[in-house]
Amino acid sequence: xxxxxxxxxxxxxxxxxxxxxxxxxxxxxxxxxxxxxxxxxxxxxxxxxxxxxxxxxxxxxxxxxxxxxxxxxxxxxxxxxxxxxxxxxxxxxxxxxxxxxxxxxxxxxxxxxxxxxxxxxxxxxxxxxxxxxxxxxxxxxxxxxxxxxxxxxxxxxxxxxxxxxxxxxxxxxxxxxxxxxxxxxxxxxxxxxxxxxxxxxxxxxxxxxxxxxxxxxxxxxxxxxxxxxxxxxxxxxxxxxxxxxxxxxxxxxxxxxxxxxxxxxxxxxxxxxxxxxxxxxxxxxxxxxxxxxxxxxxxxxxxxxxxxxxxxxxxxxxxxxxxxxxxxxxxxxxxxxxxxxxxxxxxxxxxxxxxxxxxxxxxxxxxxxxxxxxxxxxxxxxxxxxxxxxxxxxxxxxxxxxxxxxxxxxxxxxxxxxxxxxxxxxxxxxxxxxxxxxxxxxxxxxxxxx
Length: 450
Ligand code: AMP
Hints:
The chain is 29% helix and 24% strand. The protein is α+β, with helices and mostly antiparallel strands. It has two domains: 3-231, 4-Layer Sandwich (Glutamine Phosphoribosylpyrophosphate, subunit 1, domain 1), CATH 3.60.20.10; 250-438, Rossmann fold (3-Layer(aba) Sandwich), CATH 3.40.50. The strands form six sheets. The chain has a seven-stranded antiparallel β-sheet with strand order 3-2-4-1-10-9-11. A six-stranded antiparallel β-sheet has the order 5-6-7-8-12-13, covered by helices on one side. A four-stranded parallel β-sheet has the order 17-20-21-22, with helices on both faces. β20, α13 (352-363) and β21 (368-373) form a beta-alpha-beta unit. α5 (128-137) packs across α6 (143-151) and α9 (255-269) crosses α10 (285-295). Bound molecules: adenosine monophosphate (AMP). Adenosine monophosphate binds next to α13. Adenosine monophosphate (AMP) binds at residues 242, 283, 345-354, 386-388.
């Protein structure tokens, strides 16, 4: 779970990268970093924390140059510490190079141990570093050729950006697991995980970078390469369910519209005889709109989210029950008293959130709580870039529907069916990865599921 942004040949490269990362903050909140190039040297800054905490005007001023790449990180491979923050910058015999990666490489442990046995020394414990080693070891002439050579050896999910002294490379794996979009601002090419980054800086969305496509951007312009054998696409359906911002356009669709269609489909599959439909903020909103419109039941904001919570807060010495959830969410008591409600949320992972939320609804006086989830039960962990816990912690992997309903104190519980989800993706249904619901991983690999 990461967000990446890159820009080539713009006077305000670092400032725009900073803003791009701001728009992509939802994709990772652990660390943030930018590497810029002034065509002779690369300049680097990365730190643990949110974009707003990491960068100051002075730091951005020091990131000279007309090209830059940036990264926000939420670890899915490697621990959460500064040595694993990206972009990852190295100097090697051909010059300098920095990389920003969104995704997970399934054969990275194997490649890493092979390289280590030959004497390679790794500076981090993240999978991305193997790409850098493979590029540096390649005997090919140009950076783009060395990059292709390296990427042909790795398996798994990657949308990535590489900046050198005088070029920017953008690549998306042949399965297309994670999104990557191309735009333009005042003639300067920009690349980002999601289009919401373009909207903030006033860039125009040009197109999506295709699965298996590599772009080389330099003084001569933008060149596209498709060096891989064609593969069936497996774009991540969870980007639509939860991860991407609803105002983004990716995988050929508006995230907002797709989320609404999930809600409408859910209402057809599992209608509820209730007084009102209540969204679980914020990720449940678009699906709730679809659910309420389809079922012709009034939508009410029965749960309010406090948007001004920092990363840490001082809890009173006498512990308050469920403080962590309560500081974020609070029900509208008067609205809920004696009412039968249907709540719509995007997913259940461990089910601790739903349980706490429903306790709050009950305390506020809701008579019936019919929980509707706009995705199928998550039964398998993701190995392609979404941070999900191991199988034993996924409630749908260890409990049946009735048990989960009881655990979360719901009057009824229904998930969107896999068929319903696929139906919403229409003619593109085959081009998505549903492994978190089915366990059918598109790439064979050796990983510990438990
Ligand atoms: P829980 O079931 O308590 O583990 O949390 C479920 C909630 O977390 C859902 O309402 C989602 O909005 C959100 N969520 C879903 N997937 C993830 C994820 N991979 N990382 C963080 N939050 C998530």
